[in-house]
Amino acid sequence: AALAWRREGRRFVGARRGDRPGEQRCAALAVAAMQRGWWKRDASVRPGAWSLALFILGVAATLVLLGKVLVTEMFSRTRSIGWVTPPGSPSLTSTEHVQQLFPGRMRGGIVMAVEALPGSEGVLASQAVAAFSQNVSARVKTDWRAAQFEPLVIGYHLDMPGGPQVGDIVRKELVSKDERMTVIFIQPTKLAGSWNDANDLLQEFCGAPPSGYTLHITGMPAVLSGDGCFGGVHAKVNTRDMNFELIFKAELCTVPIALLIIGSMVQYVRLLLLPMILVVVSFIVTAALTTPWMDVVPIAHDVPAAVVSVTMAICLDSSLFFLSKFSEQHTDGWPLQSNIDETTKSIGHTITVSGTLVAIAFFGSMLLPEANIQGSGFCMGIAAIACVGTSILVMPSLLLVIGKMLTGTVFRNLHLQPVELSGFRGEREEMQEMRDPAKEIHAERSHWLTMMRFIDHSPVGAILMVMVLMSPVLALLPELNISADRFALMPMEMPALQALRRLQQDFPVGILEPYAIVVTAPEQGSVEHLSGELKAGADAFKASDMALLSARMGLEPDRAVA
User: Fold this and answer.
1) What is the largest CA-CA distance in the chain?
2) CB 513 within 8 Å of CB 108
3) pLDDT digits over 249-260, tens only?
């Protein structure tokens, strides 16, 4: 591209007035590049290194142009991966047995919680809550939107199946300890209706809770579909795309902070463009390397979002090493080729070792017997390798080709010091006199070196300082609700999930999928039928002339009697 701009720049400038704005901007950029000499090869750069750098950047540019296709293909080939129960588990046999007896059984129910607002009476003696519960039970059994499921409705103010004695036992489990909340459990028994229609009916209840009370609606169908109700507020959330979107927003918040940290150690602001280029190229390379293996190793839907985080972390870390070293040596007056050679030699070894260790750790997770973790480890291990390779190849090439444009010309600032000529005092004393103040000023103003000196002299003090900075978080640890359930990756603002978290404070709702307990009679019907036939045959023998039958069968009289 640079050679084409240099060769065709004057023709672009002389183009007609009807040309597109993009070509005019291209012409202006080409003229600026020719005037300032940004695209001219530096005198210190070897021709072979220059050609190799242009080739690497050409390949990277091609990948960027194909990036949308590669990334879209990777996202489209992800799949839903659940936790697989080990073969031979009794639960698998029980599930198969239930499916044979009750095909198409509706799994999961709806939990509707009525919670008293501050200043309102409890739910036990409230006539409003009792009337609301009875209205819900009647509506879900008669309204066509929910009646097709033939739901079973259980609540404190409702008649219980199984009689009064069973009802009293169940009612105690449907009210919180402080008697400020009660739940109405709706369990569909048939998979014959439409969830969207039934959800419309539930949202009518969400908008009209009893006076002085608020309503929460959750359950397995509501969580999986992104519906639900929390505090009388309903919202529809896309549970498939929110994982990537939320992580992408989080990364956008952390990128400026990371660039500020890198900028504090790099003297040239324009060099901060390179880390973002490195992140984009590395992610596209990861997509290109991962896609061919996705038929062999299944990748879950949320793995690409995690790969973005890993890619940004490794690329920004390697950019910090590369750019700080390059900037420091460039300020000291190193030639461009020598600067890049030394930076690649020293920093490249460090990045390779650290990236290899990270990749080994990710690939090691493939030994775990879970398909979800295996796919995540494989994909992120590929991302670690792609980031290391891209950092070692693309970053030096970018610095070699556009390093002058991003840094400009920097003259070494040397201040002459007066030297006494009273006599020869030895080589060591004269070397101490001939000092470079620029280096001393740079060393004193380096916050990184100051912090490293403090850690070196007082490691205990550094640890105490970190503990002080983390004290607000440590103080709240006892109050944190740390969960590792299957809903950990769901959007936290989803009403069904918020209602689930609220219910878990007072009720053991679990994953809102009731256990199926199936009681079956022994498979002995055919045996009983056979026994009846044998008995009838024996009675027929008793009513017959045994001696005559024995003689016809050729049996002896003693055996016939027996």
Assistant:
1) 152
2) yes
3) 777 777 788 888
